Amino acid sequence: MFDGMKHMAKTPHEQEQGDIPAQENIYPYNLSISLTNDELEKLGLDCNDSECEVGNYVHLHALAEVVGKSKNDTGYGEKHCLNLQITHLEIEDEDAENDEADQSMAGQSSYGG
What we know:
The protein is of the alpha+beta class. It has one domain (12-106). The chain contains 3 helices and 2 strands; from the N terminus they run ααββα. It has helices at residues 12-16, 37-43, 94-106, and strands at 58-73, 78-93. The chain has a two-stranded antiparallel ribbon with strand order 1-2. A hairpin with a 4-residue loop joins strand 1 and strand 2. The longest helix has 13 residues, at 94-106. The protein is extended and about 60 Å long.
């Protein structure tokens, strides 16, 4: 059932649906989460830090409980919905993670030293 990370971008046809311009409608709205001061504090994030700039990527680890499940026949086929409540969350700076890996690799010689 679970077989790795998937890119969740909409198809070009899906992006053209609705009132939002396609270039601003890449990901489904319901996959977006907002973190406010309380959550940022728990995660140890400071929005004044460079890791929180718009356009940066963070590595998100989440544990979620399945809190609802439904199936509806819309006349155009079945639509399934799984409701998840995020219960645990961790965020890592993706750029810092990549820098650490680069530094680690630079410290190793080609002879395994």
